[in-house]
């Protein structure tokens, strides 16, 4: 796409079409959602479609990819708060249909929380549409380089490069959490349709590696080559190193 806006509208329209199709069939629509800077315009467009074009989220069930650990749900940097501010507070989604990894639980409860998260995705019928951003190091969700193709929802240690990339959201680098809870690569690859979005020149080198080089757990996004319905949605700059 020429720019972030056009790419974002494309993704929002694809999501809206699936929501409407499922509604017509009397079924739930299960969305896997990302945070960060990349999907903000997608969410803004979904909110616009709800407010001005009657798109209802009453049949939508969501599962977010990840959350920092530990973090208060109301902290400025919490992905739970991000989702409320960018999407959930502005549409008619049922609160009980929203799922986000909980960064407030005591550590000893996280293992069960992750297993429950996986079970809830399965009970919901699996993810229909998953949206992803990509880290400069190739991470998807918070599956950092070295994450197994078979990984499930779990607690992980954030790479230093990720902590630095995300440090602008925090007062200083030492306050960026060292841990996070993330869906696994296997969780993501089970989604029926995946859109990975990347905007701007900073993402060009990792997009090139993930799309055109060999599949390797060192570039987690390259594992999407093994998925049969993944679309990379790029602006000119993010696509500029593709051959
Ligand atoms: C966020 C997530 C991350 C981001 C990635 C890119 O939920 O899962 O993988 O998508 O770090 O972040 P931005 O979009 O801020 O460049």
Automatic annotation (TrEMBL):
Domain of life: Bacteria
Signal peptide (UniProt feature, chain positions): none
Residue intervals of the Glucosamine/galactosamine-6-phosphate isomerase domain: 11-230
Record's protein name: Glucosamine-6-phosphate deaminase
Part of the full-length chain shown: 13 to 255 of 633
């Amino acid at each position: 796409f020429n720019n972030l806006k056009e790419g974002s509208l494309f993704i929002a329209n694809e999501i809206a079409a699936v929501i409407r199709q499922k509604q017509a069939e009397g079924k739930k629509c299960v969305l896997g959602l990302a945070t960060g800077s990349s999907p903000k315009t997608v969410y803004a467009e979904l909110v616009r479609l709800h407010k001005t074009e009657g798109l209802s989220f009453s049949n939508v069930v969501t599962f977010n990819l990840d959350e920092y650990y530990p973090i208060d749900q109301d902290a400025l940097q919490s992905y739970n708060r991000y989702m409320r501010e960018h999407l959930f507070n502005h549409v008619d989604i049922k609160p009980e249909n929203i799922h986000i990894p909980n960064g407030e639980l005591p550590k000893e409860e996280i293992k069960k929380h992750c297993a429950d998260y996986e079970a809830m995705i399965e009970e919901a019928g699996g993810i229909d549409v998953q949206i992803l951003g990509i880290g400069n190091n190739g991470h998807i969700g918070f599956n950092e380089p070295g994450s197994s193709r078979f990984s499930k929802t779990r607690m992980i240690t954030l790479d230093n490069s990720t902590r630095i990339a995300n440090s602008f959201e925090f007062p200083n680098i030492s306050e960026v959490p060292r841990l996070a809870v993330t869906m696994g690569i296997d969780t993501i690859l089970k989604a029926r349709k995946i859109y990975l979005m990347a905007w701007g020149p900073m993402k060009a080198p990792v997009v090139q590696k993930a799309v055109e080089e060999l599949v390797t757990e060192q570039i987690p996004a390259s594992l999407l080559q093994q998925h049969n319905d993944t679309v990379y949605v790029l602006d000119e700059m993010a696509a500029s190193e593709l051959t």
